[in-house]
Amino acid sequence: MIRGGEEKDIGRLLYLLKQVNQLHAEARPDLFIGGGTKYEEAELKDLLKKEDCLILVHEEEAVDGYLFGFFQKTEQSSSRPEFITLYIDDLCVDEKKRGQGIGKALMEEAFAIGKRRGAYNVTLHAWEGNEKAILFYEKMGMYPQFVGFEKILGD
Fold it and tell me: What per-residue confidence (pLDDT) applies to 128?
């Protein structure tokens, strides 16, 4: 079952946030610290109240997946039209439940909600090297909008 996130879900959300952070820390230990989370409990409480924030959870016996998104409005300018984007900030399925269609169901629900709320598009970022995520997003019908580059300025 997919539903909106609630305060009662925060413990499970923090558990899953640690999983996704660990994946990032293993891929990019220079940018992520293992054992941490992207959001703390107080931040999650605030996000759950924000109108422009979309928090979906998948729950069977317990919350085993989530999707965090934000509705962002681009103001019209001389070079761009006004439009709304649903930016997916984070998606995680419990490592014990991956490959069972939970991520797909969360994404499809986000697409449907975005469309109902007048979003022009859905965007997200995927870290280079996270091939499973990139392949998943491509299977969901997504494609690169732009490519980000970096040069590490070490010793």
Answer: 86
**The residue to which tokens 């997946």 are assigned:** 65
Q: How confident is the model at residue 129 (pLDDT cuts 50, 70, 90)?
A: confident
- According to DSSP, the β-strands at 2-4 and 53-59 are antiparallel
Q: Which amino acid belongs to residue 124?
A: L
In angstroms and rounded to an integer, the radius of gyration of the C-alpha atoms of the chain is 16
Q: Which long-range contacts (CB under 8 A, 24 or more apart) does 136-143 make?
A: 136/103, 139/104, 140/104, 140/107, 140/108
Residue 41 pLDDT > 90: yes
- Residue 31: phi, psi to the nearest 5? -115, -20
Give long-range contacts, CB 8 A cutoff, 24+ apart: 147-153: 152/30
- Determine phi and psi for 93, rounding to 5 degrees: -120, 135
Mapped onto helix, strand or coil, the DSSP state of residue 125 is: coil
Pairing of strands 53-59, 121-124: unpaired
pLDDT at 130: 86
Kindly give, in sequence order, each residue whose CB lies less than 8 Å from that of residue 52, ignoring residues fewer than 6 positions away: 70, 71, 72
